[in-house]
Amino acid sequence: MEKIPAIFWLAPVVSVLALSFAYYFFKKMMEAPEGTDVMKKIATHVRKGARAYLRQQYKVVGIVFIIITVIFSIMAYGLGIQNPWVPFAFLTGGTFSGLAGYFGMKAATFASSRVANACRTCLDGGLRLAFRSGAVLGLTVVGLVLLDISLWFIVLNLAIPETTPGIKLLTITATMLTFGMGASTQALFARVGGGIYTKAADVGADLVGKIEANIPEDDPRNPATIADNVGDNVGDVAGMGADLFESFAGSILATSLLGAAAYLSYGEKIQINAVLAPLLIAAVGTLLSILGVFLVKTKEGATQKQLLRALGFGVNSSAFFIVIFSFVILYFLNIPNYVGLWGSIVVGLLAGIGIGQSTEYYTASAYKPTKMIAASSHTGPATVIISGVGIGLISTAIPLIIVVVAITLAYGFATPNLFSFDAESINYGLYGIGIASVGMLSTLGITLATDAYGPIADNAGGNAEMAHLGKEVRQRTDALDSLGNTTAATGKGFAIGSAALTALALLAAYFEEVKMMFVNFLGRSDELINGVPAKDAQFIDFIYYYDIHLMNAKVLVGVMIGVMSVFLFSGLTMNAVGRAAGKMVDEVRRQFREIKGIMEEKAEPDYARCVEISTKGAQREMLIPSLLALFIPIFVGLIFGVPAVTGLLIGTISAGFALAIFMANAGGAWDNAKKYIEEGNYGGKGSDDHKAAVIGDTVGDPFKDTSGPSLNILIKLMSMAAVVTAGVAVSYHLL
Amino acid sequence: MEKIPAIFWLAPVVSVLALSFAYYFFKKMMEAPEGTDVMKKIATHVRKGARAYLRQQYKVVGIVFIIITVIFSIMAYGLGIQNPWVPFAFLTGGTFSGLAGYFGMKAATFASSRVANACRTCLDGGLRLAFRSGAVLGLTVVGLVLLDISLWFIVLNLAIPETTPGIKLLTITATMLTFGMGASTQALFARVGGGIYTKAADVGADLVGKIEANIPEDDPRNPATIADNVGDNVGDVAGMGADLFESFAGSILATSLLGAAAYLSYGEKIQINAVLAPLLIAAVGTLLSILGVFLVKTKEGATQKQLLRALGFGVNSSAFFIVIFSFVILYFLNIPNYVGLWGSIVVGLLAGIGIGQSTEYYTASAYKPTKMIAASSHTGPATVIISGVGIGLISTAIPLIIVVVAITLAYGFATPNLFSFDAESINYGLYGIGIASVGMLSTLGITLATDAYGPIADNAGGNAEMAHLGKEVRQRTDALDSLGNTTAATGKGFAIGSAALTALALLAAYFEEVKMMFVNFLGRSDELINGVPAKDAQFIDFIYYYDIHLMNAKVLVGVMIGVMSVFLFSGLTMNAVGRAAGKMVDEVRRQFREIKGIMEEKAEPDYARCVEISTKGAQREMLIPSLLALFIPIFVGLIFGVPAVTGLLIGTISAGFALAIFMANAGGAWDNAKKYIEEGNYGGKGSDDHKAAVIGDTVGDPFKDTSGPSLNILIKLMSMAAVVTAGVAVSYHLL
Questions:
Q1: What is the value of ipTM here, to two decimals?
Q2: Domain ranges of chain B
Q3: What is the pTM of this model?
Q4: CB 3.0 to 4.6 Å from B637: which of A696, B169, B183, B729, for a disulfide?
């Protein structure tokens, strides 16, 4: 193979830089004063709860990882249907993802009281502190991903022997992809466990506190309030971090493999450039993210709009410059059709923005849909639910159309003769889809910072409320929090959109995996059919050998199982929240009944008990849905083989994306419809309309924070599991 | 072509027989006394409302039919991309389906007061009358389908010229399929319009009547009560009838086409037998249905269980004998592998029963899921909704697995070498899937009678309540009604299951349609590729020419648009109910406020105004979702061509089936959880738990009676539209 080009080293350098800045922001935040003793005490409660949860979570996940590693080792060393590096790559992916979640959450839990304290003096300080604490998560995630990929690339380049020209790079990239499988597995548990935790606490706290006892949100008299604040951290910080760690890693790795396959015939010099392009774009995006973080500032007395503009300025500057720099990178790397590929990147970026905009339209109270839900509260909770479900379902249309257009354009631009769908163009088109997903995610460092900012602001508000800080302080934290709700909603849209594109890149990578086995193990590469041009003949042979055409009933079977998996998984996570929340409600009611003096603040509620209920509930409930996601692709492969697995992935990605958008948007819209009423519309707080809207909001909680976001991981993990175990479906299948 | 074999004439004879019995049951029912003057008056109100609605509906649908017929005529006579018989076949399908709905509803609206009156003396008389009135719909539907197909077969056999052997039958069956498209279009409007109508009235009546004014269901003081009863007829009788008319016709016609294609090479004698087999199985099933209707009887004082057993005995006897007779038919027709095909039929029947059982498990209060929802009412309406959504989502797993297993077995049994998936076996396997759907639907005459029985019993109860008949009479009608709820739930499961299998048969037919154009228009049939056996080469050529393999990004695009269509369509119908119900609520509140003396029964409410609101709401709201369903397949074909349309159908069928099951089961479970509480559990009627459950029930109304069942038609209509306009996608497409 050609020597690794010098520009490669940009990636490890940027990764170290990102991690250093993360550490710098963390140190700076730790220097800020923690506030009063009460504030400290509350923060310690939350921090302890969060740490206890994470420890418990990593124990369970650790066992799962050991089991999977053993299985992979058997597949690699016993059956020989997998690369010997797979078990190790799998483990590092999981470990790095876990570390990112841990550090991000640590920063968030240390930040909350400090942000609340900063708000005692001014708004600007609060915003900057909260945002830079969020940046700790953002930069840790992208830094660790870049680091892990760079290290593996160096190691595998040394370890894997040179064979036929071009094949080495294919093998390296295919092996690295399994690192993503480790990240996916970790992410699933983080999202599902965290999601169940946070919503069990939230629903439980709201149902008894707000509705029955008529005490406000985050009131220290509510026994579930600490658990609720812990939940924001484990669900929204650690969970979101693991989710996007996975997307970032998955999109880069899948695209590298697609690049190795597409540019195989161009010689190794071009091929290695195509392999490194996604990594380098991500590295430059990370550099721009660091710069962007420094651009976010605001002044005292800033309005909600100005705050939003401050965040937007940082994010948009990074996005703007990546458009320019990605062109420079592709040009510099001298990849054929670099203009077209640059078009694909821009398409990915625009798709991300488009999905975010659509999320905002369907969930912000400034627009018609949420206003309609608020208006329907006039006829009671039933119509609130009906209209929320209706709007949620409708809201899937625009994002799906955006993805469809994005696939078509990203594919079409990347093909040599614009929009050619013939056998020869396919590899280039799929690389285009991959690179679009990398484009969308390139500035993740800063977009993730704005996402993590939300729960930090929320927790700061909680801290201020529980510590009975003055009205002015509460107003400032409220301003930060309300901003956080907007960024959280668009962040969710972004997370789903990037998950969908990443999963599509993985689906494309699945074809490459299968094709490699077709060529390597089955030795069918040079079996030419007379009368058809060589490449086409190989391609036809490939399609025909695996029967991956649409008249094969197994494809349909696969799609149906894929759709089923998505529905079943969502139902299981929904019910898990219902069950855990039910237990929380009973506990809160019990404490109100049995611990005398809670209401008069003469006795402290037993916060720890509620934390424990959420922790146990989450751990117990997360196993079955998670294992389902891991094993369905393997079982389908074992019974029906490659065509059904392909169908499975197509079904899972399509239905999973739609269901995730439906759940996230319906939940977001219910939440904001309630807030809209609380602002004094339709009777305001305490009216019957408000009560109806609160019920909608409560229903929306598991929609938008448990089942919806968990689906992001489901679609990526199932694709990953299919890619990594492709050898099983190829070598053994019943029908 | 061979002469039409004598056994063909069984079909028209049975069709006349079925229609005669329908007329006989109708006459018998009309002879029964109508009851008191009040009862007559109420029945007249309902009948007038229903007739007014249907007249309005047929006007709108008429306009749509004229437009589509013009388009088809242009396609057939102008562009030459369609058979010249298509516009006519389309029109008769629509007309016959409309007639079936009209007659069925006429019988139902005449029956309600008579059933209530029969219940004044004994239960047995009431059951028999209600059931036989339901049989009018059942037998009219199957009779008209058999008649229309038989007539067209005779006409086309005379009209279409003899060409290459075997091609004539392919042309005849392909042409007849468009008759199904007319039925689909009619059905969509019936289901969507009827569904919106009935739930706008029901939700409106419940929200104000039950919850705000605290008056019981069907109380004559409620202005929306007549509209509610009208709704049962237009939604559950006419809508359900049109739905299954379509499934029955679609499955027979698609299977005939698949038979003509699969057995082309066996010579015309075998080929015509394979074409007629589905028609003959349906004819014999219809004969058995007539016999089954006469087997349903019970005695006075029968328990709920005995009533259910009485109905079950009729249905099961028909099913049992069709298993035997279908074997005889296949054997007699001498179709190769008749044992395997018979296996496929049995698979279809068992799948229907399995889906029904699963529906019952997830929606009947005797089982855990519904009890869980009832228990969650203890923590308020939010947890009722959460657990209902969770259980609804989970409940999709078993039916989807059943369909997956059924597809695999029905396909596998029908292939010459059991479970062979190679190019040569595909046609036989697809015929197997088709014949399984025919098997499932063969005894539709009697299953539809039990479905239509439900709303008739419901209306009889309404009539008794409004006419203030004695407690004993109410108990009897309640017993009938409660039985109706069980049959309605399993009936819904059956309707969805058969819709899915019919749609799959249509998907298979789509391949045949496209293949015929490949052979006829494009003349690619004898372009053999050297080195590959002839048949395989043709097949590869076919797959390759159309690019219908899984690596084509257009397939993915199609699946995504399919999933999107399903979500968007459900959201639109959901919101339509929300909007129409909101208007109804306002109107009922206004009448309670402005018409003095309603509550004391001194003044009569303005029923007609509520009927008008429902009618207008339904008409206004049904157009957009319906047109969407019609035109999406055409647009996708025009932009992306055949691979995307195929993906579209796969996506629509899979996601549509899952969403339909989710909605139907969640709705059914909420309904029965409420009834379970009303039986005295968890505090019983009037408790907070009950109020929470009523909210769940109200949310479930549009789930189970509007959006859910409308999806059945959506998946069939989109498949039909794709089949009929296949020429467009083949001849013109942008990318």
A1: 0.94
A2: 32-335+428-731
A3: 0.94
A4: B729
